[in-house]
Design a protein that fits this description.
Layout: E1 2-10, H1 13-44, H2 50-64, H3 73-95, E2 113-116, E3 121-123, E4 127-130, E5 134-139, E6 147-156, E7 159-167, E8 180-185, E9 191-193, E10 198-199, H4 204-207, H5 209-221, H6 227-261, E11 264-268, H7 272-275, E12 282-283, E13 289-290, H8 294-307, H9 309-323, E14 326-330, E15 355-357, E16 364-366, H10 367-385
Helix pairs in contact: 1-3, 2-3, 5-6, 6-9
């Protein structure tokens, strides 16, 4: 199994210039290779593959772009391999009838990493040595496992990182637990569990909105292309980076607690991209636009994206795979309307109604706890209907 370990790099000024220069050359090669593939197909209906472009690299380095001699050869090959993976994903989406998304040219703000796929790097206690770049200080804040297979140098909002992809042995399964839990993800609480407990939402983006708005206003007042505007842009990026790191730290910790405590975790199979869509415009018979609740929906969408539901489910799924746990996803339809006690449907509840009162059996529950109990029930019935294979370890 593969596991990634991400560590902060502290390059000197000259080393940072070299890293940026390498990143720019890699982006240029990616765009040139994409242009070659596109033009060959348009002009001669010919498809150019990874191995053809890889064979041309020595000639390009010797004749057309001698500066590529200052970049490790496998780094350049990995750039072409990255483009090959983008085209394979494009053709897969076409075959499956999905939105194709043709590979796009990468601007300087979109292409932010390059990879040493096999060699060209070495790691010591406080330094990493990169071929054609030099020795850079690194902070190994945790112990790595397994054998290092690749090293990716990545730039994120003013900071450099090294991501090591390691091949790890399959871990021993964690002790089995009999606990099963249904999880209803929400806005008022981040999650309501079927045992009646709640995980409160930290709302990191909401708390930082004033800071973000102030820094964004400062950036917008600066002249385009000026150094002061670039400084203001970096402050905005720094604020977003802090929010992202806070959210990811929170989700990692909560997913670890759930996986350690529960053998089976049941979630709703939510389609978040549909939940955050803008409401359609409304018009009267004269063509005049009417209120469609877009302002309120925009606030709800902001809270949904701030919670990070999809990331939380993904982290639980990954950790469950390592711990021999089970993650089940069920249909979210009517989990808030059906009574978890008598299993009969109650009238539709508006979002501001936070208490479930059954008109049939009279049970009174928190709305989200009732939904979590229904989610757990659906998960149990789904597991009984589909035979669950034993984990491979």
């Amino acid at each position: 199994m593969r596991k990634a370990f991400k560590f902060r790099l502290y390059p000197k000024r000259e080393q940072e210039h070299t890293l940026f220069w390498t990143l720019t050359r890699c982006r240029e090669l990616y765009n040139a290779a994409l242009s070659e593939r596109r033009d060959a197909y348009r002009s001669a209906s010919k498809s150019i593959g990874y191995y053809e472009q890889k064979r041309d690299l020595p000639e390009i380095k010797a004749v057309l772009r001698p500066e590529y001699q200052d970049i490790h050869s496998q780094v350049l090959q990995d750039v072409l391999l990255r483009l090959e993976k983008a085209f394979k994903a494009f053709f897969r989406r076409v075959a499956n009838g999905e939105t194709p998304g043709y590979p796009r040219f990468q601007g300087r703000n979109r292409y932010n990493s390059f990879t040493y796929p096999q060699g060209g790097y070495s790691l010591s206690e406080k330094q990493v040595t990169l071929s054609k770049i030099g020795t850079i200080k690194i902070k190994l804040h945790r112990k790595m496992e397994g054998k290092i297979k690749t090293a990716t140098i990545k730039y994120e909002a003013g900071q450099w990182y090294c991501v090591f992809s390691c091949e790890c042995e399959t871990p021993e399964p964690s002790p089995l637990s009999e606990q099963e839990v249904g999880i209803d993800l929400g806005i008022t609480h981040f999650a309501a569990l079927s045992d009646g407990t709640f995980i409160e939402s930290p709302r990191y983006y909401r708390k930082a909105e004033k800071t973000l708005a102030r820094r964004q206003q400062v950036k917008d007042r600066r002249k385009r292309g000026s150094h002061r505007r670039e400084q203001a842009r970096r402050l905005v990026a720094k604020a977003h980076r802090k929010i992202r790191n806070q959210r990811r730290d929170f989700l990692h910790k909560q997913s670890r607690k759930l996986v350690d405590q529960s053998q089976t975790m049941v979630f709703e199979d939510l389609q978040t991209e549909n939940l955050v869509k803008r409401p359609k415009p409304r018009q009267d018979e004269n063509g005049k636009y009417l209120s469609n609740g877009a302002a309120a929906k925009g606030g709800l969408n902001k809270s949904i994206t701030d919670a990070g539901w999809d990331m939380f489910v993904d982290l639980c799924t990954q950790k469950a795979a390592w711990a021999a746990r089970t993650v089940v996803k069920v249909d979210p339809s009517k989990t808030s309307q059906i009574c978890s006690s008598c299993l009969r449907e109650c009238p539709h509840k508006e979002l501001d109604e936070r208490t479930h009162i059954c008109i049939h059996c009279g049970v009174v529950l928190d709305r989200d706890t009732n939904a979590a109990l229904n989610i757990l029930r659906l998960g149990r019935s789904q597991q009984e209907a589909i035979p669950v294979e034993a984990p491979p370890f």
